[in-house]
Amino acid sequence: MPLDPLPPPSPHGKVQFPPKHTCSTAEPCQIRLSDVGKCYHSFPKGSFKARFIPPSAPHFVLKHLAAHPPTWTWTTKDGPNKDRSFQVPTIPITCDKAVPRAIHWVVAMFHSFKAHLNPIAIDKESGRVKPGWLRLYQNNLYVHLRGQMKETAVPKRAPPTTTKPSSTPLPLAHPKPTPLLGNILETELSKLRQELAELKDKLLNYITSHEACCMCCSNSPSESSEADHTTHVTPHPPPVLLTLLPDGSSKPAVNPPTWLVTVLAQQDLPITFRDSAFIPSLFTLTTSFPEGTLEVIKLTFDGASPIFLGTHRDGDLRISTATLASEVTASYKLPHDPYIPTLPHRRK
């Protein structure tokens, strides 16, 4: 007697996974709003003149995007979710002058993408990038910046343990460097030590000359009539001043103003000024500080009107000719400097 065939397996308990997405080599992928920023999509074949990789974002850009994630609000007009709003991740492609410096950097990097494209991705009539390539790059740039923010995130500290440590500590497993790598590291370390010693000598010479200049200025009778709120302090090593380049990278400032170096070398300077190392808008003198100014100090020079130096929340240093007295946290007296910024004279 033949046996009965086996029954089919029960469908309960099985999980049906969706098929894996494969990017097309001829047309850009159609990215829905619910899928923006979830995965990286490949560009169609022949989209670029050469291999294109988005550049690494500076630390101040990643810090701003981590504190203010870029999103836009999408509201449905019909259907079961009518008049309901959703937050969709995005990358800003336009901005005005009032937005933070980090957004300007992202917008500039986004528009540099067009220079790497082949004619197949550009509309012949309008000369603009086709919408499919534009949305694809906007999604990939968001994934790229989000990955960099995860790499630079500070790991959380482990909770304290209640158990007592053992008397014999466990040996640490460190990889042993190869002889060639050790020689390279030793050479680079010796160069850095030599450069550090030269910078220390230059700094000590500058501090000595500045102290002598302050001693000469303190003997003059004109300074005896200054306000009692002016503070005389001993300088300390100032932070390294950086200049922001158009491509988003930074480099040490060449020949920064003497008066700015003297101010940043003060020992009792507020801590927000020690963190402000970028000086892109330092030489734009205004008559008031913009919104977002953290702290303001007053600078009094010999034979010149006082100016005010402030720190902004985006990391820039700003200078102005006037501010409220309640906003000034400290006052400093400095020798005359021919490179003090001044407002241009208007013709009557």
Brief characterization of the structure:
The protein has helices spanning 59-67, 101-111, 131-151, 179-218, 258-264, 271-275; strands spanning 71-75, 85-89, 242-244, 250-252, 285-286, 293-301, 307-312, 317-320, 328-334. With 348 residues, it is α/β, with parallel strands linked by helices. The strands form 3 sheets. A 5-stranded mixed β-sheet has the order 5-8-7-6-9, covered by helices on one side. Strands 1-2 form a two-stranded antiparallel sheet.
Please, could you describe this protein's structure?
The protein is α/β, with parallel strands linked by helices. The protein is built from six helices and nine strands. The protein has a five-stranded mixed β-sheet with strand order 5-8-7-6-9, with helices on one face. The longest helix has 40 residues.
